[in-house]
Specification:
The protein has a two-stranded antiparallel ribbon with strand order 1-2. The longest helix is centred in the N-terminal third of the chain and has 57 residues. The protein starts with a helix and ends in a 9-residue tail after the last strand. The C terminus is likely disordered. The chain has 436 residues and is mainly alpha-helical.
Length: 436
């Protein structure tokens, strides 16, 4: 049964995410305690600076390819072959632009070397992504889950090795690069036989990049929103504030990827239903928000109330100033979690440009607010602005409203109050559900 397969995929990815987060949390504790606030700030700044350029490297091509293959499996060979060439082109461009920006902004040779290593991950991803796209489009997410677990174990082993050898930022990134190379070979073995070769011209590659433009802008907008605060903290307050903020973010990174792993199996399913069965898409969307909230809300409540004890026990007294940012970030993340499945539905239904507007607006508000709050309040100001940006009327309700406009809704008033509507949890419609 299709419903059973969808549930199994959700269970596989959610289980994988729980395992990987437990492993990654152990590695995070070691990193935070060993590096201290200053070096942790440097390490986190490098990753945050490279993050948007990683979005340029992917440029939404994976999401576009999954949607196209899900709509017509006969095109898999053509789409995968074109995807490989497009990813290499975007990854190379993203890496060059990142290094150019890094060279203009910094004169620290160690920092530039760290950026080069962080950017190299995008090139490795260009090799791995087509295999994961093929598995996802086939809804073989159990294999994807195995890849996630093995990647987490290899990455954590690399972190442990780097720390035991006395390394810091560069050593950690070198270890991560080595783990990614091993994972590339493992993914190739697990993915099995990929679609056969297909002749690809540069015009075809350019066409795919043009078609994926809204996906790419959406991914870049989210990347800027998600990491610009750490970059601005470095520029406006210094490395220690980045370290304090990054320690708080370690807990947040346990919630958002878990929600994303639950939402991920819905994308190929929505893509397959988008053109032929709107009713089934709507019914599937109606069933999702309550279970997701019931899973994520207890985690947020637990972390929020135990933030002080958790921070001191796991990270030590040096990070006592991370408690307040953590509490703010956890509660501010809930709206972002709740819109993840509606986002998958809208992407599958070709409503990507309005999503670009939603996340673009949130990113702009985040930048403006950080300019005002970070100079005075540091990490607390960055956390506050992140929570406010995602909870703006257009940012919080925009995605659910757009989903409601696309898939239907009968109770408009409730969405204005809660972002969802109908007794069965229908995604809501605002009275002005235009591009946000």
């Amino acid at each position: 049964m299709p419903e059973g397969r969808l549930f199994n995929n959700i269970l596989s990815l959610a289980t994988a995410q729980v395992i990987t987060k437990l492993v990654n949390m152990a590695a995070s504790i070691a990193i935070v305690r060993y590096l201290g606030s200053e070096e942790l700030g440097r390490y986190s700044y490098v990753l945050a600076f490279a993050y948007p350029f990683g979005a340029v490297a992917d440029f939404g091509l994976a999401a576009y390819a999954i949607r196209e293959i899900s709509r017509g499996r006969s095109r898999e060979s053509e789409v995968i072959a074109t995807l490989r060439h497009a990813l290499f082109l975007c990854a190379g461009l993203g890496w060059l632009v990142m290094m150019g920006c890094g060279a203009m902004l910094h004169r620290d040779a160690v920092l530039l070397a760290s950026l080069a290593l962080a950017g190299f991950a995008s090139v490795l991803s260009a090799v791995t992504t087509p295999m994961l796209v093929s598995l996802t489009a086939r809804e073989d997410l159990r294999t994807v889950a195995v890849c996630q677990i093995l990647s987490s174990l290899l990455g954590s082993a690399a972190v442990a090795g780097a720390l035991l050898l006395g390394g810091k930022t560069v050593s950690l990134l070198l270890g991560a690069t080595a783990a990614n190379l091993v994972m590339l070979a493992v993914t190739y073995v697990l993915a099995g036989r990929l679609p056969g070769t297909f002749p690809v011209s540069m015009s075809t590659v350019g066409g795919m990049i043009r078609e994926a433009l809204p996906f790419g802008l959406l991914l870049i907008g989210f990347a800027v929103y998600y990491r610009i605060d750490m970059v601005m903290l470095e520029w406006l307050r210094g490395t220690r504030e980045v370290g304090l903020y990054a320690a708080a973010y370690r807990f947040l990174d346990a919630i958002i990827p878990l929600a994303a792993s639950i939402a991920r199996p819905f994308y190929p399913r929505f893509s397959g239903l988008a053109d032929r069965d709107l009713r089934s898409s709507r019914e599937l969307l109606e069933k999702t928000w309550k279970p997701l909230l019931s899973l994520i809300l207890p985690l947020a409540i637990g972390i929020g109330f135990a933030a002080d004890s958790l921070t001191l026990i796991l990270f030590g007294s040096e990070f006592k100033d991370s408690v307040a940012p953590l509490q703010i970030l956890i509660w501010g993340s809930l709206p972002l979690v709740l819109i993840m499945i509606p986002t998958q539905a809208l992407m599958a239904a070709d409503r990507v440009w309005p999503l670009v507007g939603v996340y673009g607006l949130s990113a702009c508000l985040n930048i403006i607010g950080n300019l005002l709050l970070i100079p005075r309040w540091g990490a607390v100001g960055a956390a506050t602005m992140g929570a406010l940006a995602v909870r703006t009327r257009r940012g919080e309700h925009g995605v659910c409203a757009l989903a409601g406009a696309e898939f239907g809704c009968r109770d408009r008033r409730r969405v204005r109050n809660h972002g969802v509507c109908g007794d069965a949890g229908r995604p809501g419609v605002r009275e002005d559900p235009g591009p946000c």
